[in-house]
Amino acid sequence: MIEPLEPQARLDQIVKLIATHMETEVCSLYVLRADGVLELYATEGLNPGAVHLAQLRLGEGLVGTIAATARPHNLSDAQNHPAFTYLPETGEEAYATFLGVPVLRAGRTLGVLVVQNKAVGRVYPEEESEALETVAMVIAEMIAAGGLEGLLRPGVTLDLTRPVSFEGVPLCDGIGIGQVVLHEPRVVVSNLFNEDVESEVARLSEALTILRKSIEDMLALREVADEGEHRAVLETYRKFARDRGWVRRLEEAVRNGLTAEAAVEKVQSDMRARMMHLTDPYMRERLHDFDDLANRLLRQLIGQDVNGKDVTDAVVVARNMGAAELLDYHRGQIHGLVLEEGAATSHVVIVARALGIPVAGQVKGAVSMAEKGDPIVVDGESGDVHLRPPPEIQSLFSDKLRFRAERQQRYRSLRDQPAVTRDGTPIGLQMNAGLLVDLPQLAESGAEGIGLFRTELQFMVASTMPRTGDQERLYRAVLDAAGERPVTFRTLDVGGDKLLPYLRQSPEDNPALGYRAMRLALDRPGLLRTQLRALLKAASGRAARIMFPMVTDLSEIRAARALISRELEHLSRFNYVPPRSLEVGAMLEVPSLLFQLDPLMAELDFVSIGSNDLFQFFFAVDRGNAHVATRYDDLSVPFLRALREVVRAGERHGVSVSLCGEMAGRSLSAMALIGLGFRNISMAPPSIGPVKAMLMALEASSLSAELDALLDDVSQAGTARTLLEDFAARHAIPY
User: Which residues contact 13 (CB under 8 A, 6 or more apart)?
Assistant: First the structure.
């Protein structure tokens, strides 16, 4: 491999060496092209004139079957196998015994390596099959490194570089064009061959011991629930890590000449290729567990973290990720996000939407098919992803990107115009935020204020608990940036799927329904009092709006108000200037509040509906579970009836009611909210322009009449989406 040879001479030498050492009469290498054709690239024993001429389509013949299934074939009488296909130009009809293995890299088939003999009845032993698979892995690395580029005819490309398109689910609008950055990149194994088998076996054994201990430590420390999905994943890891078959294959690969890390990569690639062809969805999901475990072992062996965040023109490709992980990347350099999992209301998607990053989810197979640096296009409107797109596709999306930029420019021209419907109804359009980097968009978007400032994001991106002074500086900077525009600060909303590594919590079977938000804050009053003190000090002499999340019972509001009173007394005692005015509100996210609306309004200055969680609890649908996240419509008649009741209760008590969930940022659902009577809504900054364009063309009173008629009809169920789309079409309302 290290000799200074031309590509063809290197391949010829490889197949000759294999034939000699395995005492076979034929050794051939077929390489998969981007057009799905396996081309003979080198042979020892077959007709040399067939090199680069003999071809088989994917799935054709024994070689094509091996490539399509990624499984070896070991046959004593190949010509009588039903998949056998005769290629007269090769002269292979004389050979009966056949052993073929796929050339795999990261679970992808790049070619097929074959040995053959004339003698009928010979069966290649398992150790020879293992040895051939090891050599195939080395060849795969050579192909991936571009070692065959000099042999390609004009217009021919290898499968490693072929364009691939995926159909995903659109999660965040926009067009992203850039280069692939793998969020958890595969560890690149550069040191393939070992010089001391026993020392490599010892390295492997030590790394496995450390890996097993880390898993046992996680289980022993109860960082996951005794029952439930997270513990099940770790139990699967534990079984994999102690699986004798897996360990035996790793050790055999080392004894065949590979380093410990190359052995892990080989066995991982073999396992991935086999599991990707299983039809059992449960077993295919276990592939993710196996990949994660193998990558842990690889990182343990290499001893380094390869996850770099300083990137440019990047489209991040990941199985899934948390909101804080996305924020690790430098803003402005991320042009798109591709998730193999994810749902519209996942927190990483909400943060991506706030940052204006297009997102496609449910893009199965994207991680294994993508390589770092590959060109990629993400269509956040359709959910389609184009990996290594041909020039015409790239040009098409470049044109779409320019068109979107021109449309955004038109939206910017509306920035300073008042948000008033055609029939003269003013609508307050505010933005959601959570970090200082969001604040420039307050002016850029034309928002009338910040309807939801998520204070927990400061906690999620910090490695330790933010001190009172750090919190106060952030809140003061937000108020300074807003000027006279209102800012609503939501107190710490953690727990559920927003865990802080430095805040120890007991494991829960149903964390979304468990110890989170106000429940946690009231049990830890020191945490909430620290935040309230920082908020009140930052708002010195100015208007302050504080909102409590996940309120379930009126007693929680009274307890929170009591804490505010204590902090105001504390500030007064030390001669701090209090806020000029103070409004206290609550998020309506739990359905129990729908049955105590009148006493709720009597306790508060304002109410903001968190439609994401309210919808989740209303229909008992896990917003992060892709199997059910799209099953129910947030424009359903029952849900809209519930929202209308909240608006009417606010009107009865003179209490402002707004909505700050994802519904507010989609033009059609925002239109429904205005029809229900909402006069203040808050959304991600990029949504303000399209929503304003919609409402300026809307006659709110006409829509309210039609919507009320639908909701008042007790026989109606289903969704109001059709009515809304028809109304928009009849009145030429853009949505």
Answer: 3, 5
Residue pair 493/516 in contact (Cβ under 8 Å)? The answer is yes
Cα separation, 324 vs 501, in Å, equals 11
Asked whether 679 and 450 are in contact (CB, 8 A), the reply is no
- Nearest to 666, CA basis, from 117, 152, 39, 172: 172
Instruction: Report the C-alpha gap between 38 and 389 in whole angstroms.
Output: 22
How does residue 12 score in pLDDT terms, banded at 50, 70 and 90?
Answer: very high
Alpha carbon distance 396, 559 (integer Å)? 57
Pick from 528, 527, 566, 530: which is nearest to 547 by CA?
A: 528
Q: Which two tokens stand for residue 31?
A: 């390489």
d(CA 290, CA 285): 9
Q: What share of the chain is helix, strand, coil (3-state, %, to 5)?
A: 45, 20, 35
Tokens standing for residue 611 = 């439609």
Q: Which of 347, 570, 627, 731 is catalytic?
A: 347
Which tokens hold the place of 463? Answer: 């490695």
- Beta strands (DSSP E) in 300-433 are 314-318, 334-339, 359-361, 375-379, 384-387, 428-433
Contacts of 281 (CB under 8 A, 6+ apart): none
Q: How does residue 230 score in pLDDT terms, banded at 50, 70 and 90?
A: very low
Report the DSSP pairing between strands 108-117 and 26-32: antiparallel
* Selection from 63, 61, 24 nearest residue 44 by Cα: 24
Helix (H, G, I), strand (E, B) or coil at 202: helix
Q: Could you tell me whether strands 37-44 and 55-57 are parallel, antiparallel, or unpaired per DSSP bridges? A: antiparallel
Residue 421 and residue 695 in contact, taking contact as beta carbons nearer than 8 Å: yes
Beta bridge partners of 186: none
Q: Which residue has the tokens 């925002």?
A: 670
Hey, is 446 helix, strand or coil? Answer: coil
- Whole-angstrom distance, CA of residue 112 vs CA of residue 28: 8
Q: What is the rounded distance in angstroms from the CA atom of residue 422 to the CA atom of residue 257?
A: 76
Alpha carbons 270 and 274: distance in angstroms, whole number: 6
Q: Which two tokens stand for residue 51?
A: 């090199």
pLDDT at 288 over 70: no
Residue 211 to residue 563: CA distance in whole angstroms: 46
Q: What is the number of alpha carbons within 13 Å of residue 49 lying toward its C-beta?
A: 4
Report the distance separating Cα 536 and Cα 550, nearest Å: 21
The rounded distance, in Å, linking the Cα atoms of 369 and 374 is: 10
Name, in order, each residue with C-beta under 8 angstroms of 395's C-beta and a sequence gap of 6 or more. Answer: none
Residue 81 annotated as catalytic: no
Full 3-state SS string of 275-321? HCCCCCHHHHHHHHHHHHHHHHHHHHHHCCCCCCCCCCCEEEEECCC
The two tokens of residue 635 are 């424009």
* Contacts within 8 Å (CB) and 24+ apart, 72-79: 72/99, 72/100, 72/101, 72/102, 72/129, 72/132, 72/133, 73/98, 73/99, 73/100, 74/98, 74/99, 74/123, 74/124, 74/129, 75/99, 76/120, 76/121, 76/122, 76/123, 77/120, 77/121, 78/116
As given in the structure block, the two tokens for residue 507 are: 């494991």
Nearest to 639 by CA among 609, 665, 606, 667: 609
**Tokens 């793998």 identify what position?**
182
- Output the average pLDDT for the chain: 86
DSSP helix/strand/coil, 28: strand
Residues 6+ away with beta carbon under 8 Å from 128: 22, 99
Q: Is 21 a catalytic residue?
A: no
Phi, psi of 38 (to 5 degrees): -95, 120
Tens of pLDDT, residues 540-554: 999 999 999 999 999
Q: How far apart are CA 578 and CA 559, in angstroms?
A: 20
Specify the range with the lowest mean pLDDT, choosing from 1-10, 476-485, 590-599, 668-677: 1-10
